[in-house]
Amino acid sequence: MLSFLYTYLTNLPRWHLVAIVLVGYLVYYLMEVVKRPILAVSDGPFKKYLRKHIPTLEHKFWPTFWCVESRAQTVFASILRSNIMPAIEYRRQVLTLKDGGQVALDWLETGCDPESPIIIILPGLTGESQAEYIKCLVTAANRAGIRTVVFTNRGLGGVALKTPRLYCASNCEDLSEVVRHVRQAHPHVRMGVTGISMGGLILGNYLARKSDEAKSILTAATIISVPWDVHKGCASIEQPILNNLLGRHLASSLCRTVSKYDILRGEEFEWDMNQVLQSKTIKQFDSAFTSKHFGYKDVESYYSDATLHNKLHQIKVPLLCLSAADDPFQPLDAIPVKAAAKSSHVAILITARGGHIGFLEGWWPANKDQYMGRLFSQYFAATLFDPDNEFYRTMQLMMEHNLTASTSVPGSPKVQTPPPPPSPPVAAASAIRKKSIPF
């Protein structure tokens, strides 16, 4: 028997070997890669509404068969979308902020009703409105009949830098001005907002720090591939070798951005631009420039202020988040699953694979209907159109659920339920161990 097996293996036909490898990989793919996403949110009105109105939540995520590794998902998603998504013709609005700085608001309203809902979209670290992942979301919203406006940060997207100030993950003042501006220009429509990667950090800090303002203006929000714990996210992106290459690419993009502006050079500034431009990692750049630019004593203080995993309890706008368990920018154990499981307003959907802003699916992921865009459009179509005001009633129940939870501790003061906001027409976070999620 053993001699027969030895003879067979030593004379194995090539097609037999190929078949064995393919069958083995198929078994691995079906057992270890294809998983039903985990939805972390408290058992309450928000979870019931999501389960009822977003079909994507109920389906397994089938990553592209030949592209399941996290870095591959991250890189190939960018390459493929860049080639299949044509440039979008936006209507550009340059908004001058109260300090004289300028940002770009790029509108896509083609084919949408003049009174249709609006979604404000915040790109990632150095992204702008023609970034491939932004075009993916904008296109998905446009197919659903929702208007979008991409908020491009100072110094990006071809807008002149009028003041010696850029942007950072912890500062949400510019976003607050943009949200109030859009609301003032469109007072009678429902509004949503989305942040991707670092844009998600800015959005999350806005929703937490200006929770009452956000609740009075916004109906719903989403965050995609956000680095929940910036300390751990930064450490993860510096891991050798592939993660570090991605981080170096982003650091290089940051250096190119600041190098364009003479207004950021001068002896009156605390930073040395020559040292800044030598940064090889994001943390080196933030240490040499960003933390000093925004008045932090060091980069650790900046990251602590920017991080989101301990702020979920402050958020009052219904927020759906999409994260991948293998995101190279954010380790799984830093996703605040336990905090989300206690939250009435924050839901985190975690896929087993997907990388960073990847989420490629299908044998050849060249179609425009991809997982990230589909989840995005289903959520906002359900929350922003809301013809029967079901989501509006759900939000009232969510507020009651939140108040009940906050007063359930013995000895806590009674809180009167505030009146719900008018409907427009038409616990501290705790990381989990990887073994507690069945991926």
From TrEMBL:
- Biased composition (Pro residues) is annotated at 416-425
Positions of the region Disordered? 406-439
- Quote any Pfam family the record assigns: Abhydrolase_1
Q: Mind listing the GO biological process terms from this record?
A: medium-chain fatty acid biosynthetic process; medium-chain fatty acid catabolic process
Q: Which InterPro entries match?
A: AB_hydrolase_1, AB_hydrolase_4_sf, AB_hydrolase_fold, ABHD4
The record's listing under Gene3D superfamilies reads:
alpha/beta hydrolase
Recite the UniProt keywords alphabetically.
Membrane, Transmembrane, Transmembrane helix
List residues traversing the bilayer.
12-31
Q: Which residues form the active site?
A: 197, 327, 356
Q: What GO MF annotations does this protein's record show?
A: acetylesterase activity; monoacylglycerol lipase activity
Task: Give all residue intervals belonging to the AB hydrolase-1 domain.
Answer: 117-362
Question: Which sequence ranges form a coiled-coil region, renumbered to this chain?
Answer: none
Keyword check for DNA damage, yes or no: no
To which protein family does this belong? Belongs to the AB hydrolase superfamily. AB hydrolase 4 family.
Q: What is this protein called?
A: AB hydrolase-1 domain-containing protein
Species name: Anopheles atroparvus (European mosquito)
